[in-house]
Design goal:
alpha/beta; Aspartate Aminotransferase, domain 2; four-stranded antiparallel sheet; amino-acid biosynthesis; transferase; aminotransferase; EC 2.6.1.9
Length: about 375
């Protein structure tokens, strides 16, 4: 007997999500001591002082369960985004919220639509609940909204759209998304995954769309621009009835007390967020200049990462970079076997990566 025969339909077909290689693992396996990690789209600044202070204060009550309703954080999010607290669902990172949407609104016999080259979690949560994933062909490495619209059928329950998209960094103009929402049947939920939205130079107030599109769910995270990836805290904003249903399948205490406290503090730290944007913009220019010097094609990105075509087997280049103490991310599992995704680091980290890449590719003078 195989235990795969006992598993829920679709689970046996899944491949586990592969995170970026931890620094400690590289040090242990390769014996490399001086390591930089540009693999997981983390904020190179580290957490803000305000967030660290909030964590220190909250840690004194670690013996207590967190507020299962997340009152303080929901109130802070509601105030910042001009929403009712009843429209917010907290999660153990935004990945958790994406899974809640799938569990609450789809199942066997239903279809979930997402784009080619889109975030790996979408097919994972779809197959895990026994639903059928429908992949719409990408356009210029990004979402083709016309193709996604054509993929919607009477069996479609959910559409996932990442904007900016991970791992390609592509972005769709707000007017295009709004026009798309106007054409989607009201009984199909559209999840607008905005994990990297804080890095956009000009941000459309997509949250205001919730008043007109009750089938819209917007997900965001504190893991990227706010520098709290290790604490795992994200959230969804939606119609109150949708939020109520999501909270019915949410695990109790899925947002821990340290994460909630840090997130509240981070929301009020505009100076830190601006600094994160500036570091990211400068680092993006630095990497682009390096790629152009090496005559490497790249996908223009609106996130805190950039995906570059190394014009060879990217898995081999990734391995060679590990020996140089540099961790990036191969994206063959996204249908991009010649590309590497590189997170924006501090100036010295970006320069070291470019030097290592030049050496590995044999492009040095």
């Amino acid at each position: 007997m195989s235990f795969c025969d006992l598993a829920v339909s679709g689970v046996a077909e899944l491949q586990p999500y592969v995170p970026g290689k931890p620094i400690e693992e590289l040090q242990r396996q390769y014996g490399v001591r001086d390591v930089i990690k540009l693999a997981s789209n983390e904020n190179p600044l580290g957490p803000s002082k305000a967030a660290l202070a909030a964590v220190a204060l909250s840690s004194k009550e670690m013996t207590r369960y967190p507020d299962g309703n997340g009152y303080a954080l929901k109130m802070a999010l509601a105030d910042k985004n001009q929403l009712a607290p009843e429209q917010i669902t907290l999660g153990n990172g935004s990945n958790d919220v994406l899974e809640l949407v799938a569990r609450a609104f789809a199942g066997a016999g239903d279809e979930v639509v997402y784009s080619e080259h889109a975030f790996a979690v979408y097919p994972i949560v779809t197959k895990a609940i026994g639903a059928t994933g429908v992949v719409a062909a990408a356009k210029d490495y990004g979402h083709d909204l016309a193709a996604i619209l054509k993929a919607i059928t009477s069996r479609t329950k959910i559409v996932f759209i990442a904007n900016p998209n991970n791992p390609t960094g592509t972005w769709i103009a707000a007017a295009e998304i709004k026009a798309f929402l106007e054409k989607v049947p009201e009984n199909v939920l559209v999840v607008l995954d905005e994990a990297y939205v804080e890095y956009l130079e000009q941000q459309e107030n997509t949250i205001a769309w919730l008043q007109d599109f009750h089938n819209l769910i917007i997900t965001r995270t504190f893991s990227k621009a706010y520098g709290l990836a290790g604490l795992r805290i994200g959230y969804a904003m939606s119609h109150p009835e949708v939020a109520d249903l999501l909270n019915r399948v949410r695990q109790p205490f899925n947002a821990n007390s340290l994460a909630q406290a840090a997130a509240v503090a981070a929301l009020g730290d505009d100076n830190y967020l601006q600094q994160a944007r500036e570091i990211n913009a400068a680092g993006m220019k630095q990497l682009i200049a390096g790629f152009e010097k090496l005559a490497l094609q790249y996908i223009p990105s609106k996130g805190n990462f950039i995906t570059v075509n190394v014009h060879s087997n990217a898995a081999e280049v990734f391995d060679d970079l590990l020996y140089e103490g540099v961790i990036v991310r191969p994206v063959a599992n996204y249908g991009l076997p010649q590309h590497l995704r590189v997170s924006i680091g501090l100036p010295a980290e970006n320069e070291r990566f470019l030097e290592a890449l030049t050496k590995v590719l044999g492009r040095g003078e």
